[in-house]
Amino acid sequence: MFDKLIVGILRNEEKKVLFSVADRIEMLNEVTSGLPNVEVGSFDGLLVDYAAECGASVILRGIRAVSDYEYELQMALMNRRLKPEIETVFLMAGEAHSFISSRLVKEVIRLGGNISGLVPPRLKVD
């Protein structure tokens, strides 16, 4: 669908995360190592500004459920207002993955549950 994909990780100090930005970049590089057209990076500030800095003409966003769409639509319209030359494209998650969220995975980990099939097999949680 695209010649190149840049996965951008927002550096957000207000969000409670399990892994540092550096750790997430390392993990994403590992799981995408067989995909030569995928790059992983991080940014501060607005996604649309990061996309422009990278020379992107499209922001690709995933949608799991109707509840995601409302939020994503608002963000896409704001991004369009800020940088009309960058379009947002939505892709629907497959049914097998539509229920997975970072919040749920963190809860399963916290309660000692099995996360096999929810995250890449080599992911380690200490």
How are helices and strands ordered from N to C?
A: EHEHEHEH
Low-confidence stretches: none
Mean pLDDT: 91
Give, in spatial order, the strands making up the sheet with the most strands. 1-2
Oligomer: single chain
Helix content: 25-40%
What does this 3D model show about the protein?
- This protein is α/β, with parallel strands linked by helices and 126 residues long.
- It contains four helices and four strands.
- The protein has helices at 21-31, 47-53, 66-82, 102-110; strands spanning 5-10, 38-43, 58-63, 87-92.
- The strands form two sheets. Strands 1-2 form a two-stranded parallel sheet.
- Strand 1 (5-10), helix 1 and strand 2 (38-43) form a beta-alpha-beta unit.
- The chain is globular.
Characteristic key phrases:
single chain; alpha/beta; 126 residues; two-stranded parallel sheet
